[in-house]
Structure formats: structure tokens, C-alpha cells
Amino acid sequence: MEDGGSGVEGGGSGRHQNGTPKRPRLEDVAARVGLSTASVSLVLRGVPGPSERTRQRVLKAAADLGYQVDRTASTLASRRSRLLGVMVDIHSPFHAELVEHLHTAAEEVGYDLVLSTLTRTRDERTAVDTLLAFRSEALILLGPTAPADALAVLDNKAPVITVGRRIADTALDVVRTADDDGVSQTIDHLVGLGHREIVYVDGGKGAIATDRRRGYRTAMRRHGLGDHIRVLSGDNTEAAGERAARHLLDGGRLPTAVVAYNDQCAIGVLAALARAGVAVPGEVSVAGYDDDTLSRLSCFNLTTVSQSAREQARHAVTAAVERLDQDRTEPREVVLTPRLVVRGTTAGRR
Amino acid sequence: MEDGGSGVEGGGSGRHQNGTPKRPRLEDVAARVGLSTASVSLVLRGVPGPSERTRQRVLKAAADLGYQVDRTASTLASRRSRLLGVMVDIHSPFHAELVEHLHTAAEEVGYDLVLSTLTRTRDERTAVDTLLAFRSEALILLGPTAPADALAVLDNKAPVITVGRRIADTALDVVRTADDDGVSQTIDHLVGLGHREIVYVDGGKGAIATDRRRGYRTAMRRHGLGDHIRVLSGDNTEAAGERAARHLLDGGRLPTAVVAYNDQCAIGVLAALARAGVAVPGEVSVAGYDDDTLSRLSCFNLTTVSQSAREQARHAVTAAVERLDQDRTEPREVVLTPRLVVRGTTAGRR
DNA sequence: AGGACAATTTAAAGCGCTTTAAGTCCTGGT
DNA sequence: ACCAGGACTTAAAGCGCTTTAAATTGTCCT
Hints:
Two copies of one chain form a homodimer.
Chain A: H1 26-33, H2 37-44, H3 52-65, H4 71-78, E1 83-89, H5 93-108, E2 112-118, H6 124-133, E3 138-142, H7 148-154, E4 160-163, E5 173-177, H8 179-192, E6 198-201, H9 207-222, E7 231-232, H10 238-250, E8 257-260, H11 263-275, E9 285-287, H12 293-296, E10 304-306, H13 309-325, E11 333-336, E12 339-341
Parallel strand pairs in A: 1-2, 1-3, 3-4, 4-5, 5-11, 6-7, 6-8, 8-9
Antiparallel strand pairs in A: 10-12
The structure holds a DNA duplex.
């Protein structure tokens, strides 16, 4: 009861004016309870040692003062930021999902996230430099496009965990799904429904596109449909899907199914077919990839492939923690199996 | 030429192992050129004073060492983080756009951004605490839902700039667009095309929804169409749009135009109408709000209202800078005029 | 040569916290 | 009584940088 004063500070007392924020420091809390900053620090971090009585008083004082630890100071002092730097493309719904799960996974192991985003005017280099400036202990890069050797150099500054992209023979940690497997599952599904003429709309020359295309080819051959393999050029846009579909429509005979590189592209296909009066899935079945928010819209209800964001996020965090706290040094590649999500755009042959 | 050594450090020399990152410090750079850390600091920050020769040598040494300033240390030492904390909903395409412009605007005035996102398990409180822990000098909150008084309390810790939401009589800075005006423009457009029976699908009870609804009512009356006012309950989801449209379809007589609270909702309307074989815009015109990525998809090509993300972002950063560097203390509210984007879902009455 | 003055450079004191080694107090045991 | 040992506390030394006041040079006059 010998505490000097109590209760919340007078309203508005801490108002920032003339650039004098007056944020309470550890020392202020210490003074309030007549203890050293060392003890207060111990209590606030939950380190065992301080007595129960001290603990209570400190906690109360901190709450009264509205004390909040200053990360910059504690990072500097402890030589640990407990921060995982995450590079994301803020326009990607899939990245959004990953970030969501990264947050919960990181929290469980006592780490925080700092996000740095790619934009039209902000390249990967800038984004990563920002993460490093914050003293991130590890870098989780979502779908980086930088060349493998650049990533390897980066790895010298902080462990790099690449998510969603295959990287040939490097010492980096990689978490991804088997893209070829995903497309393969789609083909199996379609063949199972009786389809034979299945066209694939390509996604360009990236590592991911390459894998998905391979998955298509391999699966077709496996089903003895090597002669029906047909790849139309395209990319990850709706426009590409439309173009491909129009090409098919102009070509006279339509295939019975179209598998697109991703959902955006698939939706372009869908739009073009609808405009031409072709029934989906009545006359033609269509499938995408990514399980984008788009694909779930009831007006599309697109059959697609889900990439298990949750699992990828957890593995990425685990990989980081192993590097940081369990000094693992050999690289690890985690390849997850994607999951086919059958919705309304695929059906048996008429 | 008296520099000790030169060129890039041996490959992989800085490898982190056993948690010993060995990141170069200012002192290392200083030692390399035989100067004090004070001089190096001056050069690296571009402060005038150091001679040209010193400048060159320091810059080279820093580059050779791969030196990168440690934000935590400089923030602590300078008592300035030059950081603007931004709270975003990472799933929102509109926020994504805002962030993109916030980045460029902030960079122009020498500030950096730190992002903190809302997720299903991460509330506004947590997000804001994180921003404060990083010592953000101002908080830019995108579409916060916290009550006005909670925001006012927050404002005592750092200037708060609320974006995209109206806040009644507080001392906070607000940047937003006139939601009522946006809907109003849509109505004007439709009336101009000859429509009279225009139904509005509501967005619920938030501040934004209220404004938009009011815009609808006011505009209808202004055109002498008070008798035709008809508001269907709904929310910000596709499902709500479908429900509303089905209600209209079941009701027998269709209106000639439907204006929805937002694009998601409008797309639900579109889907339901399409399923029922109603031609858009042939029989019924439809309009949304937000100029969502969705609305631009050629398969929707939705007439909608754009919220000028770029301008809102610039104003938000300006407001923050005025508070921080030009000690403005009176609150400012910036209300921008939204812009109607006429696309393919609205047309003259048949 | 001597001194005033401008141009550079730097010593040193922190920023707000963590951490380690060193206390300070009590309890008991003997 | 006295001391070992446990339970708490705390003094003090940084972390990697910025910043201010002061020191060091160099330059130019008279």
C-alpha cells in the first residue's frame, strides 16, 4: 500500500505536442514502485526470479502508466529481435492467406513478423533491405523471383526460407507444393469423368508454370492420352484465358475439357465460353489452379487446386526456428501435396 | 590509396552460424578508413560537413563491407524512427492499393512504413500495439472499426489518421471519400439513362453503409423519385447480393436498375440475374461500389465507383507529416469526391 | 610569424532496454 | 551466535547508432 499514487494518469496528460511524445520508460515504472529497472524488466518479460508481490506491483504500475516495451531498445540490448521478415506481394490473395497463418505460427513460437511488400515501384531488393534494416533474424520470401544465386548471397545475412517456388540445387530452405502433382490430380479427375480431349492453357516460363505444364504432359501420357496433348500459350491473366478460349472456339472442334495455369486464366476461359454460349460444364469442363477467392464465388464455382496455405506457413516458420534456435545448417526442402477442390465447372462427358 | 585492403569480403565469410551473425557495424566501416564512427555516420546519412574525399572513401568502405544501417540502433539514438505505422486488412484489395500509394508517398517525404495486419485471430488492438512497439511516429489506420473514443485515446500515444471511415466529432485526422456522393453520382447516371425504378441493396449498419444509403435516398428525392425509393437489406457479400436479386425475381416485377452497396454484393446480384436469364444491361442495369479488382474483370465489367486510393494515400501521409514535422494540432478532415466508373452493366432503358 | 576564422573531425554522452555478476536479506542448522 | 545457502534485487556494462560540444587542422591576412 506504500505505492506512490495510483490509478490511471490524468486524461490527455501524455499528449504529444511539439514533438515531445513522453512515452513512459522502464525507469518510470521502476520509480513508481521503488525498484530497479532490472527487476521491472524481469517481471515484464516473465523471467522467473522476482517475488510474487513484486510481480503484482510492477504489473499494476506498468498498466497504470500504459507502459509498452520499446522494441528497438530491447532488440538492441538483447541482441535478438525475435523478428521474422516476410516479403509479400500485397495484391496476392494467396499471400494474404499465407501471412495470416504465418502470424499464428510465429506467435506460437514466440516470434513476431515484420512485413515488407512488393509493389509496382518497390522491388524485391528494396523489400528485403527493409526487412534486414529491422534486423529480421530470418527471411521468409513468398514467391520470390530473384535468381537463385542472389538468394544464396542473401542467405549469408540471414537464413532465407523460400515459399512457393522451386529452386534447383541451392543450400536454401524451400517450402512449396508439388505443382505438377496438382495438375496431375486435375487430369486424373477429368479422365475419371470420361474426358480424353483435354487442353492445357499455359502460364509462361516461370518455374511454377513449367512444373504445372509438366504435370499435365506426364498425366496425359500416363493415361495413354499422349496424342491428345495440346498446350495453348498463355499467362496468369484473365485476358490470356479469353484469348486461348477464343482460339479454341475459332478452331471449330472444341475439346471436352480445358485446364488453365491458374484461376485468373481459367476465369477468362469461362467468360469467353459463356459469351459464345457454350455450356460449362455441360459441353466443356474447366479447371483452374490456386483456389483463389475468385474461384469460390458462386458465379464461377470453379474446380481448382488448393495449395494448403496453412501447412506451408507452418513449415516455413518451423524451418526458420530450426535455423535460429536449433542451429540446423543443412538445407531442407518441404514439398507438400496440393489438394484438388472439385466444384461446379467439371462434370462427366455428355 | 592507403586504405587497408579492398574489394568484396571473401564469399560466405559472413555466414551466420551458431547464432553469430557478425553483421558489420559502423565501427567496422570507420576502422577500415581510419575515421571515427561520427564521421562515417555523417557521411552515410548525407549530412553536410565531411569532405568530399572522406565521403568517397567511406562510401566505398561501406559498400565493400556490405554495411547496412541498423534501424533499431539509429532509431534509439536519434529518438526518431521516421516510421509510419499502417494497419491494414491484408485480404482487402482496396487496402492493397492504398498501401502501394502510401509507400511512394511516404518515401517522398523521407518516412518508412511498417505494416501490421488484421486477420481472423489478430484484432485491431494487437495490430496497433505492434505498430507502437516499433515506435511508429504516427498511425495510419485503414478502415478501423474501433469506436471513436478508443481511437481518441490512441491518439494520445501517436497521431492517428483514420482512412476511409467517417468519424463524428473527434479531434482525429480523417481522410475519406464522400460515400453518399458516390452513390448519388451512380443514381444521376442511371436517371440520365432514363431509369426511374432503381432499387438499392443495403450494406448493413456501419458508418460507410449508412452514408451510401443516404446518398441513394437523397439522390432519388432530388430527382423527384422519392416514391420509387426501395432499399433491400443486405451486406458486403456476394451471397447478400444473390439473396436480394432472388427476392426481386420472386417479387414478379423487376426494377430497371439495381445499385448495390459494394462490388461483391453487386456481383451476387449479377450472378442471380444471369442464372434467371435476365439480360444485363439489356433488361436490368446493375452498379456496384469500390472499383474492386473484381469489377474490372471483363466477365463482369461492372459499373462502379472508384475511391481514388492514390489521393487518399497521399493525403494520409501529408496529414501525418504535418502533425509530426510541422506541429499542426487542429484536426483535419479530408473528404474526397469519388469518381463514377461507367462500364458495361449500365445502359439506357429498353 | 602570429592569429582569426572556417572547414573538418572526433570524443563522449546518451537512447531505453537486457543481462551478468555481485550484492542484500532471510532462514535454518548447529 | 554464526554461517551456509536460497531467494530476491540491483549496479553497471553494454547494444549500435546519433549528436553536440570541443578539438584539430588548414587558410589567409596583416
